[in-house]
Structure formats: structure tokens, C-alpha cells
Amino acid sequence: MAKKITISSTKRNSLRTHRQIFTLNDEENKALNRYISKYKVQNKSKLIRETLMFAIIRKMEEDHPTLFD
């Protein structure tokens, strides 16, 4: 049986070392909290990070340069 290879946390490329802080108004915060409770989200920061990065990547793909524009 093959031996499982583990990568120590110091060798990972995806270490999150850059903190980003943003604020929400009361309505935005209520909406976020309603979503979290309705869909039983376990990790709020993961939800925000994945949702934000999905939107950014999708927008970048839409705006990529084309040959015939």
C-alpha cells in the first residue's frame, strides 16, 4: 500500500497571510446573517471568500482580451 504524503503548512502555496477587512451596513449584515442561518453555513469567512473570489474570477473571464473586439 502506498504511503500517504503530507505537506507541512509551511510548504503550502495557499497560506492566507493577507488580511482584508470590510464593513457592512445594518441591512447588509441582516441579509448576510439571514443567509447564514437559512442555509446553515458553518464557516462565514469561507462563504465570503469563496463568493467574492467566484465573482472576481467570473468578471475577469468576461473581460478577457479578445482578438476581434
Describe this structure in words.
The protein is mostly helical and about 70 residues long. The protein is flat, with a radius of gyration of 18 Å. The N and C termini lie far apart (about 55 Å). The longest helix has 19 residues, at about 45-60. It has helices at about 25-40, 45-60. The protein has a domain at about 25-60. The model has no long low-confidence stretch (mean pLDDT about 90). The chain has 2 helices and no strands. Helix content is about 45%, strand content about 0%.
Report a brief summary of the structure:
The chain has two helices and no strands. The longest helix has 19 residues.
Percentage of residues in helical conformation: 40-55%
Largest sheet: none
Gyration radius (Cα, Å) is: 18 Å
**Annotation field: number of helices:** 2
Could you report the average pLDDT, rounded to the nearest whole number? 88
Strand fraction equals under 5%
Q: What is the multimeric organization of the chains shown?
A: single chain
Secondary structure tally: strands: 0
* Order of SSEs: HH
| Low-confidence runs | none
Q: Using the alpha-carbon principal axes, give the shape.
A: flat
Distance between the termini: 54 Å
Which structural category fits the helices and strands?
Answer: mainly alpha
